[in-house]
Amino acid sequence: MNAAYNLELLVSGTLTNTMLHAGLTEPKTHEGAEILNLLSRRSVDYYQELTHHLDFMEFFSQATPIDAIESSKIGSRPSRRTGQRTLHDLRAIPWVFSWSQTRFNITGWYGTGSALEELYNNNPDDFAQLKRMVKYDEVIRYIFTNIDTSLAATDETVMEMYASLVGNEACRLAIFNMIVSELNKLRKMMEVLLVRPMEERRKNHFLFNQITCSASR
Q1: Cα separation of 108 and 146, whole Å?
Q2: What is the model's pTM?
Q3: What is the pLDDT of residue 131?
Q4: How many domains does the chain have?
């Protein structure tokens, strides 16, 4: 159902845009392009600050089931391109799968919170424009709906249990605290951007996480 919906959005959006701009010789620049480019660049900066941290690979290898995923041979291709034990060599599917399994889901949201916070503090007019556009612009609404989906599926209780598998306490605290800090920023900024709190935006996800939290105590 989700795949069909996304395919319909892609096809209908492409056809609509083609028909509306058939007579244009130059591609029309999206009104939010400058804001989105800024958010994209800053999000990548923060994302790479995490993945390039000296303790990141140790945390990743112990806090996620990446070893089990790599040895399962459930994909059509090997998990690593050349067999080297580096992040660069790891393919996208096991990378995303390992973070989804642990409910960190950082591949879908990490860096966005800090980027939005910067925009809010340094460019309030641009943030206000983004807040308006997310209500009526399909592209921007789709982007932040996907981010919100990853955020809603992120469960801090489960994250903490997986993080406890990391033997090096300094490593565990350094990376886990970075992730939780970014998570809290994103929760705050998404509520400002989308107006409603998570329990209203994603009621089912919110209730599921509450049940998980209660069951793990």
Answers
A1: 8
A2: 0.79
A3: 95
A4: 1
